[in-house]
Design goal:
Radius of gyration: 34 Å
Low-confidence stretches: 1-10, 217-221, 228-232
Number of helices: 13
Oligomer: single chain
Structural class: mainly alpha
Number of strands: 2
Distance between the termini: 92 Å
Strand content: 5-15%
Helix content: 40-55%
Shape: elongated
């Protein structure tokens, strides 16, 4: 049985959608992840607030990776001049159409340009992987290691990044995260994976008796099972005899 990933909704709050409609953009975004990836609509949004810094004939509404990188390079230069901070991870994830990245980008731009903070938008750890989707699936339908790499590393990312070591680092990070998820699954359902309890887990653990802590250091306890199998502790007194050093030396000389 195939478990196809359901199409994601826009995820934009109503007030952000109304704000986008008020800007009278060249076209209305229908697929947020796709329509904002090339940066053309982002440039239009900023051009309404900074008309002197954005000339729209310099931007191309294309879908190729070269077009996306060119448009976003111009936008990032403007952001640097104006000291406007947009997280680099969100920009890169928007370019490569990562799930949820474009929604976060639009909300961030809305807060920057309107100076209004969204009530429903909570800042936290940014995660553009397919972890939330995988957790909704039954264990038999979750991704293998190779499928996890394919889902979380876009082909455009490998083309845009000339450094092979960086790509290898991303792949290792995806594999390590996948192995960690597998370990958690084995702990949650050990019977499915045939995990047998260790000798330490099989051994019965006895709680220490409260009377032990109250005894002095000169007492020795011996434990033996009774007929019912329970543990009986009996105290055996230990006596110490002082010996004179002169007597020990005399005994050695004899």
């Amino acid at each position: 049985m195939a478990y196809a990933q359901p199409p994601k909704k826009t995820g934009l709050p109503r007030e952000v959608l109304k704000w986008l409609q008020s800007l009278d953009l060249s076209f209305s975004p229908k697929n947020v992840r796709r329509d904002f990836s090339n940066g053309y609509l982002v440039a239009e949004m900023f051009s309404w607030y900074y008309p002197e810094d954005f000339t729209m004939h310099s931007y191309d509404n294309g879908t190729s990776l070269a077009t996306k990188l060119s448009n976003w390079a111009q936008i990032e230069r403007f952001l640097t001049r104006q000291h406007i901070h947009l997280p680099k991870e969100i920009i890169d994830s928007t370019i490569h159409c990562k799930p949820g990245a474009a929604e976060l980008l639009v909300q961030e731009i809305y807060s920057i340009l309107t100076h209004r903070r969204l009530k429903t938008w909570l800042r936290g750890e940014v995660d553009f992987s397919d972890r939330s989707y995988q957790e909704q699936l039954p264990m038999v339908a979750r991704s293998t290691a190779s499928k996890a790499i394919k889902n979380n590393l876009r082909l455009s990312e490998m083309i845009a990044e000339p450094n092979i070591s960086t790509i290898q680092g991303k792949i290792q990070s995806i594999v390590q995260r996948h192995l960690e998820y597998r370990r958690q699954e084995r702990l949650q359902d050990p019977k499915r994976f045939g995990v047998k309890p260790t000798l330490g887990e099989r051994t019965a653990r006895l709680q220490p008796s409260a009377s032990i802590s109250r005894q002095g250091p000169d007492s020795l306890f011996t434990c033996h099972p009774d007929s019912t199998g329970s543990i009986i502790r009996s105290k055996t007194s230990v006596q110490f005899k002082e010996m004179d050093s002169r007597q020990s030396s005399r005994a050695l000389s004899n």
